[in-house]
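Late entry, written up from scratch paper. The run itself happened at the end of the previous shift, but nothing got recorded in the book at the time, so transcribing now.
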Amino acid sequence: MNDTIINKVAESGIITIDLAAFYPEAETAVFDIKDYLFKGLILKEKEFREALKHTDWQQYNGKYIALNNTADAIIPMWAYMLVVSYLQPGAKDIVFGSEKDLLQTLMLDNISSINEDDYANKRIVIKGCGDVVLPEAAYTAITKKLRPVVKSLMYGEPCSTVPVYKAAFVKAQ
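Output as recorded:
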C-alpha cells in the first residue's frame, strides 16, 4: 500500500486569484464640501472661494481623494470643479463619492489592469472568502475580464468550487 499523499488540487493546474490582492493599499482622504457651507446648509460663493484659498491642500498630496457632500444641501456643479482644481496638482486621483466608492473605483482600476492573456485557456478559481470584505463589483469585473479567455471560471476554494463558466471548446493560443 502506498502511503504517499497526493495533492490533487496542486496537480490540477487550477490558478487561484485572491481579489483581496487588488484591494488598494493607498493612502486615502475624504474632502467633504459640507465643511465649507454656511451653517452646513448653504454655499455662499464668496465665502466658499475664500475658505478654499485658506485650506491646507498639502494634507491631500500623494493621496487618493473621495470628494463628496454629506450635507442635505444643493451644491452647484462648479463647486465640485473648483475643489478638484485645488486638489488635482497634489492628489494621486479624485473620485466623487464616499471613501467606500473611492476604494471600489481603485480596486476596479487594479482589476482592469490585469493582462487577461495570462489566463488564456486556464482553469481559474476566484477565492471566495478572506479577511477583507470585497465589493460585489470586483467579482463582476473579474468575471467580465476573464470569461472571454479562460477554460473555466469558478468561485470558492480549489477544494470546493462553484462552477461559474466553462468554455465549450478550448481556444487556440
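Residues 99-112 form the longest helix (14 residues).
(Scratch paper discarded after transcription.)
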